[in-house]
Write a structure and sequence with these properties.
CATH superfamily of the largest domain: Transcription factor LuxR-like, autoinducer-binding domain
Low-confidence stretches: none
Number of strands: 5
Radius of gyration: 21 Å
Shape: elongated
CATH topology of the largest domain: Beta-Lactamase
Structural class: alpha+beta
Number of domains: 2
Strand order of the largest sheet: 2-1-5-4-3
CATH class of the largest domain: Alpha Beta
Order of helices and strands: HHEEHHEHEEHHHHH
CATH architecture of the largest domain: 2-Layer Sandwich
Distance between the termini: 38 Å
Strand content: 5-15%
Number of helices: 10
């Protein structure tokens, strides 16, 4: 027996166009009873100002206000997604610290909402949000659709990562050698080239050779930046 919308979901995962993928996600969201769909992706680098890309079919004026007022910085659902993979339901309590955002959102018909975060081994995070203007999410509806919602969040993240990760973060395709990874791990632990030379029983110039190779591959400015990038991209595990 096929699971929910299996053919449609598999088709989405073959797309290499993010706009077409989002349109498909919005259609599946409507099948689940939600008028609005939003997906945001947060890339791990640069660390000081991570790249963020967002897609949604919210009313245009609300999109403008959200950006103009920098609501992303205070959105409690985004903050929750940075800390937890558990889904969150919109409520007065959730938005207690962001009353202006909540009141404005409701004025545009964004009253009932569900959101769930996803993270992958490359440090890329995603947040899928589904919303509608009325009809609260009942316990029965959540029980019936919880697995479908969680599945859709995963599909959104996998699909968008396939479409965008290499375009927006080319370092993700970098292949470090085993020795480069080993040297960067010890560097991350605070070891000097001389100390790594003793630990690995190789010449110090060889250690520096591997460090410089990693710096070049990761397009980093120095070995500290190379270690941070490699760690953020999940290359040192």
């Amino acid at each position: 027996m096929k699971t929910w919308q299996e053919d449609e979901i598999q088709a989405l995962l073959t797309l290499n166009d993010e706009q077409a993928l989002f349109s498909g996600l919005a259609g599946l969201a409507r099948d689940l009873g939600f008028d609005f769909c939003a997906y945001g992706m947060r890339l791990p680098i640069p660390v000081s100002n991570p790249k963020i890309v967002m897609f949604n079919n919210y009313p245009g004026e609300w999109q403008s206000r959200y950006e103009r007022n920098n609501y992303l910085a205070v959105d409690p659902t985004v903050q929750h997604g940075m800390r937890s993979l558990l889904p969150i339901l919109w409520s007065d309590e959730v938005f207690a610290s962001s009353r202006e955002l909540w009141e404005e959102a409701q004025s545009f018909g964004l009253r009932i909402g569900w959101a769930q975060a996803t993270w992958d081994a490359n440090g890329v995070g995603g947040l899928l949000t589904l919303a509608r203007p009325a009809e609260a999410l009942s316990s029965a509806e959540l029980q019936t659709n919880s697995m479908k919602l969680a599945w859709l969040a995963q599909v959104a993240h996998i699909g968008m990562s396939q479409c965008l990760r290499a375009k927006m973060m080319p370092q993700v395709n970098v292949k470090l050698s085993n020795r480069e990874v080993e040297v960067l791990r010890w560097t991350a632990d605070g070891k000097t080239s001389s100390e790594i030379s003793d630990i690995l029983r190789i010449a110090e110039r060889t250690v520096n050779f591997h460090i410089n190779n990693a710096i070049s591959k990761l397009n980093a400015s120095n070995k500290t930046a190379a270690v941070v990038r490699a760690a953020m991209l999940g290359m040192l595990y």
